[in-house]
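Working notes for the structural subgroup meeting. M.R. asked for a predicted model of this chain before we commit to crystallization trials. I am recording the input and output together here so anyone reviewing the notebook later can reproduce the run.

Input as submitted:
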Amino acid sequence: MNYRHAYHAGNFADVLKHAVLVWAVGYLQQKPGPLCLIDSHGGAGLYDLGAPAAQKTGEAEAGILRLAATEARPAVLEPYWDLVRGANGGGAVVHYPGSPKLIAALLRPQDRAVIGELHKEETAALRASLARFERVRVVEGDGYALVGKSVPPPEKRGLVLIDPPFEEDGEFERIACCVISAHGKWPTGVYLIWYPLKDAGAVERFHNELKNAGISKMAAITLDVGGADGLSACGLLVVNPPWTLEQEWREALSWLASTLAQGPKARGAVSQLAG
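Returned structure, recorded in token form:
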């Protein structure tokens, strides 16, 4: 596997999944009980947007840097934007915090996090970037196996983020097996699963596989920026979605689609799949 997220950090897909991640954790933290937050494919943690990898693709220019250039954002995006600004000392956005950094920044004293990463080099960078966070454990190895070993957590409440690189065939099948197994052991956890929208049939089969396995509460969030080249659309499947998801995100997704548009057909949507 040759995937390195440094080439894509801060792109439109990161903005969507990380904004929803921060919002979902905040929703769960409305109750004082402890949370366990699990990230299956963590990456390096923090990315330099001025580095050659990020400059080579320029994807952040059409993602987080467009968000930074706006004067006002929907309220549901503000917690995420505050964390991005915080990772840059409140100044210009020159670094992008990946999901492990965002999760670590969100932890309360009673919460903890488990972050997985497959690549040795990325794991070393991740551990360095999270060194000061005592309630974060970084595990090198297969992210799907990590999820299986980590649920159900003793905290009883929490969230799992599954965000694989989709470089190999059969990724949807691996995700489905992981989620079905994890949900069977921890049916009350919130699961966020990111995927590219390239093959509508594969996505539909994935959704149906989870439904047929008895997962009865699911919503899908999609964002299509209408780009002519490369990845221009992605989705987030939310298992056990917070009940205000559609209410709070419907207009925000339209705003994101308009703000991050790369073509005239940009659109965003949220829909209930089950439950």
